[in-house]
Amino acid sequence: MISVNDFRTGLTIEVDNGIWRVIDFQHVKPGKGAAFVRSKLRNLRTGAIQEKTFRAGEKVGKAQIDNRKMQYLYANGDMHVFMDNESYEQIELAASAIEYELKFLKENMEVSIMMYQGETLGIELPNSVELKVTETEPGIKGDTASGGSKPATVETGLTVNVPFFVNEGDVLVINTTDGSYVSRA
Questions:
Q1: What pTM was computed for the model?
Q2: How many CB atoms lie within 10 A of CB 92?
Q3: What order do you get walking across the sheet with 79-84 strand by strand?
């Protein structure tokens, strides 16, 4: 058990028969009444985000999540196959369970698979990934490096707004939390 006073971003807890990750939290001490903790939680099974308020000092269960390093192998219809780097054990995840993450996944990429008591909860991507531009409009002479952006499609099908100087074939660093352009690789 863990006190809600010890909440921190990224902590995984068990509440209402669900596994939740703390996205954001705020300790509130009103002038009148008892203190409480306002939190924003993501359900690791469904991906739903919920705001929940706890009384100060309230205890919740801490969920022990195991992160296993696995390599993304290939798509098999609607299923995606991952292989454990140590035991060579393979698991399959449905495309619907990793819909957002598929925008950044390419074959042979290493990711962390979140496991809870043998149940696969999902994928934890690295903070940024390098993806190759497959389609974008050519930059026009006279466009400035800081004066605007254009859409570019990368090898996974994700569309990203990039500066005008980016061309087809360039490898870009993409932020996986919001899908934004960071830099050229």
A1: 0.71
A2: 14
A3: 90-94, 79-84, 66-76, 110-116, 119-124
